[in-house]
User: Which sequence fits this backbone?
């Protein structure tokens, strides 16, 4: 592979086009063009400049991850946070442990709370109806020892279920914001190559 | 030096250099890379982030030879950040150094 300015710019453009807004991309590319221009004026060859800049792929990865995390911070959505996490994962193998693992555990926990909430919410009314029927002596066998207590209990179950769902929403929001801060920190401090 | 370690430190270096003089990108990269062995390309993403966070601003300035250059300048909050990070760094390195030298053990 040729190690010259054109190639460096081409790789950056290839990797970032479509992700970064066109204006930002041009601004970034002009920074690297200026770097090559001044370096050459300094008497250094394009190959030498290319080598000391280091891998353009790594630079592109880092800029992509930074941009996608910023986007996820700006517009909260499952899709955006997913893209941000995937981009950050690409920055280093150890992010499988430091990003993917906590991310999956969080998803599993939020899902668990949500499903539990839904089950409670649905079971409540069913139990309520059953208790009513039992009061009237309709069902063949009784699940409630005391149908009257059953009525109160079933209302309680629904209430807990709804609270779990609402709580899960706030929990998800909390972890979303915390996750964004963590990803930013991760990109800033841990990942990416500073030295080739 | 350990790669991960250096990356975290690069931010203080960039802010510190900019604290005593406004630089264009190439100059800044040169100032830092003559002291620390880094992939010079990573400084530009860092500068973008610092600009994004409002720690630096950029302006174009004509040069004698060739087209105008993009200069970087610390903002007020950038100065504050630089000051805080530097203090923190000094305290931390002083503590680590004293452990490395074993001053504390000798004092016991």
Assistant:
């Amino acid at each position: 592979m040729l190690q010259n300015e054109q190639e460096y710019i081409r790789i950056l453009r290839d990797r970032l086009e479509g992700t970064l807004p066109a204006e930002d991309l041009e601004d970034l590319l002009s920074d690297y063009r200026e770097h090559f221009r001044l370096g050459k004026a300094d008497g250094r060859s394009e190959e030498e400049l290319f080598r000391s800049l280091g891998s353009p792929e790594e630079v592109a990865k880092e800029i992509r991850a930074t941009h996608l995390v910023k986007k996820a911070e700006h517009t909260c959505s499952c899709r955006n946070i997913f893209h941000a996490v995937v981009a950050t994962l690409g920055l280093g193998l150890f992010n499988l442990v430091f990003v993917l693992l906590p991310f999956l555990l969080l998803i599993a926990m939020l899902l668990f709370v949500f499903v539990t909430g839904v089950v409670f919410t649905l079971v409540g009314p069913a139990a309520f109806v059953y208790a009513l029927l039992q009061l009237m002596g309709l069902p063949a066998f009784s699940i409630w020892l005391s149908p009257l207590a059953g009525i109160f209990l079933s209302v309680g179950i629904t209430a807990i279920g709804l609270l779990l769902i609402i709580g899960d929403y706030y929990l998800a929001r909390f972890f979303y914001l915390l996750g964004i801060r963590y990803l930013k920190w991760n990109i800033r401090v841990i990942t990416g190559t500073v030295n080739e | 030096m350990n790669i991960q370690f250096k990356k975290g430190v690069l931010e203080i270096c960039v802010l510190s250099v900019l604290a005593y003089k406004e630089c264009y990108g190439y100059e800044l990269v040169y100032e830092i890379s003559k002291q620390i062995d880094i992939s010079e390309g990573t400084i530009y993403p860092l500068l973008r982030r610092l600009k994004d966070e409002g720690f630096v601003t950029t302006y174009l300035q004509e040069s004698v030879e060739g087209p105008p250059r993009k200069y970087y300048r610390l903002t007020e909050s950038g100065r504050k950040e630089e000051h805080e990070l530097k203090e923190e760094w000094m305290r931390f390195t002083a503590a680590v150094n004293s452990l490395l030298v074993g001053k504390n053990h000798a004092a016991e």
Q: What stands out?
A: The helical segments of chain B are 3-20, 25-33, 43-52, 76-101, 103-107. The interface with chain A takes residues 3-4, 6-8, 10-11, 24-26, 29, 33, 37-42, 44-45, 47-49, 52, 65-67, 69-70 of chain B (CB under 8 Å). The CA atoms of residues 33 and 40 of chain B lie 7 Å apart. The mean pLDDT of chain B is 88.
